[in-house]
Design a protein that fits this description.
This protein has 16 helices and six strands. A hairpin with a 3-residue loop joins β5 and β6. The strands form two sheets. The chain has a four-stranded mixed sheet. The N terminus is likely disordered. The protein is α/β, with parallel strands linked by helices. The chain folds into two domains: 222 residues, no CATH class; 122 residues, no CATH class. α4 packs across α5 and α9 packs across α14.
Length: 358
């Protein structure tokens, strides 16, 4: 049975040295939950995805000469391989590509020969024999990114297997984006449960969620989530800005996918928007700063406490998105960059949004 190498239960890496990081021929309108988002024409915006599939290259290593195989890979991934081996999957090889080193003899060899680990590698290769579809999705998103942020430079993309380390998207250095494709095999993949991935993560294990994970990571690289000394309303608006950013980068992706909700959960949100907002008011939660009471509403979970089993987790992010949309409707001349960099106090932001759910 596969055992996870990392105990982190987040799809985004945030460590020292690691910053957790559509093509349209005419203006198109995408509708979701009563709000319209107009996607600009980016057909003339040039964006390119340069990617490599490290997981396919690792699968080709001769198991009788693993050190030599890694040395060869070092020439192909000079700035990334050691980070992958030592930091991401924790083998502590430190550039010593000798078959007698414990990280190779016990670690990498096990990954390449143990039937469960090798089975994972083969399963990933079966699901992702190439990365063409994901590259195309990212290219479309990068076009929008460059439209809204002209100085944006497309990162190099490296696809990896994290050996179920629960790492979906991350950045390494200034311009490298990593994607752990083993975390996007679909919720039916049997080993997710055995390594502790909760069932409520199901929507985030779908292949189409890769692009969402990438742009959430890019956003968090620019605007890290700050819960310290913040009330629930502030955290809701932070999450709402993130969700709005993802909306702008991926306008053709369904809102359910972007929120990691099922369609049933998204409908529940739309049907109960006023009740949810009233719940926060009645419970005096909007300006509450006690983490134990409020953090569950802006983090993933099986549902939102006090709202019933049909409610999704992270309901505060969805409601924050509605507040941000309302704010932008009241401020049509504000650019996306201005919105994201604004430091407007949460209460003032809510007041100026004139958000009034029914």
């Amino acid at each position: 049975m596969l055992k996870r190498l990392s105990t982190a239960r987040t799809l985004f890496v945030d460590k020292t040295g690691i910053k957790a990081f559509l093509l349209a021929f005419c203006t198109t309108v995408f509708v979701g939950c009563g709000n319209e988002v107009k996607a600009p024409d980016v057909s003339d915006v040039k964006a390119e995805v340069t990617s490599r599939a490290l997981y396919l290259d690792i699968a080709k290593i001769d198991t009788n000469a693993i050190g030599a195989g890694l040395q060869q890979l070092k020439t192909q991934y000079p700035d990334f391989l050691d980070f992958y081996l030592d930091t991401l999957i924790g083998l502590d090889i430190r550039g010593n590509y000798n078959d007698t080193v414990a990280g190779i003899r016990l670690g990498m060899k096990s990954f390449l020969t143990n039937k469960d680990y090798r089975g994972l590698l083969d399963t990933v290769a079966k699901h992702y024999p190439d990365t063409k579809k994901v590259d195309e999705q990212l290219e479309k998103g990068f076009q929008y990114m460059k439209h809204y942020f002209p100085s944006f430079k497309e990162p190099k993309v490296i696809y990896v297997v994290s050996w179920l380390g629960n790492i979906g998207a991350f950045t390494c250095g200034e311009n490298t984006l990593g994607i752990g494709v083993d975390m996007f095999l679909g919720p039916q993949y049997p080993y997710y449960k055995s390594v502790g991935i909760p069932e409520y993560w199901s929507e985030q294990l779908q292949p189409d969620y890769i692009q969402v994970a990438v742009f959430k990571t890019l956003y968090r690289n620019m605007h890290p989530f700050i819960p310290d000394n913040r009330n629930l309303l502030d955290m809701m608006i932070q999450r709402g800005k993130e969700a709005y950013f993802v909306d702008m980068m991926l306008p053709e992706v369904s809102e359910a996918t972007k929120m990691a909700y099922t369609t049933k959960q998204l409908k529940w949100c739309a049907d109960n928007e006023g009740k949810v907002y009233n719940f926060f008011i009645v419970q005096n939660f909007l300006y509450e700063t006690n983490w134990q009471k409020i953090l569950r509403y802006v983090n993933e979970g099986p549902n939102s406490t006090g709202m019933g089993d049909d409610s999704p987790g992270n309901i505060g992010a969805w409601m924050g998105l509605q507040i941000v949309k309302a704010y932008m409707e009241q401020h049509p001349k504000m650019t996306l960059a201005e919105l994201l960099s604004s430091q407007i106090p949460a209460q003032q932001f809510l007041q100026e949004s004139k958000y009034k759910p029914k």
